Here is the input.
Amino acid sequence: MNTTQIETSVVSAGLLFPQTAQATPFIKWAGGKQALLSQLLPHFPSKFERFVEPFIGGGAVFFSLNHRLATISDQNEWLIDTYKAIRDDWKGVANILDTLPNTKEHFLSVRNISHSKLDLTTKAAHFIYLNKTCFRGLFRVNQKGGFNVPYGAYDRRYYDAGNLEAASQALQDTTILTGDFEQALLGVTDQDFVYFDPPYFKLGGYSDFNRYTSGQFREQDQVRLASLCNELTNRGVKWALSNSDTPFIKDLYKYYRMVPISARREINLKSQERDVAELLILNY
Ligand SMILES: C[S@@+](CC[C@H](N)C(=O)[O-])C[C@H]1O[C@@H](n2cnc3c(N)ncnc32)[C@H](O)[C@@H]1O
Here is the structure.
């Protein structure tokens, strides 16, 4: 074996250029899928061109797949700006986080700042800071878009530098969009795979009121999403979708395969609501 052959075999064995560590979500997010990955991933297709996730939230599935080509999107603009800042300057975000004390007084002063006027790096640092110091890592805003979750008094670090670096790497070749889920699907082809994790339908007709954005995800949005899923099926695009195990959802997707998923929702306040049944719905 000559030198070139040795180098080639070392590279192909992944020894010379070890892959960067795989990232995990750098924020806590209601409905985050980190704890369910082992139940979800085995059902995903083994090969596809682009991974598309239109309700990215904390990105547990996106980060764990670590797929080369991806599109991520969410209607929460502050969240999406945070992804862009981590992609472009994770160290800058970390440096600002290092200056923010975890006190109720400081929390309230950051909460009162109008984030729309801030530069991207500061905006992201404030988003992560509020997420890590607020009550249960919830995201809730008033009608004017002002963050209004109370202080949580937790003794937790704001970030892990290695994880932010890995997240930044994972985001380098990713298309990052802000807006409604329909827009994220515009260029999708039958070689791509889409994972939908919308705000879940709750008995009562609306989903997770005011939880992630200043708007709501209503019954009509669930219907709009289901028709988009039908359209993708007609175009030969593979998708998987998570939602609640409720009669309304079962009826909306009655022509598709459904896998039961058992979830523990630590973010819910009432203990009797903590164990909930979910569905993974598949069109393949
Ligand atoms: C259940 S969470 C996704 C959780 C994510 N899979 C994770 O692991 O963290 C739902 C997300 O949908 C977003 N969202 C709500 N309405 C939307 C809409 N009409 N279009 C796109 N995203 C929307 C919310 O901001 C939230 O981040």
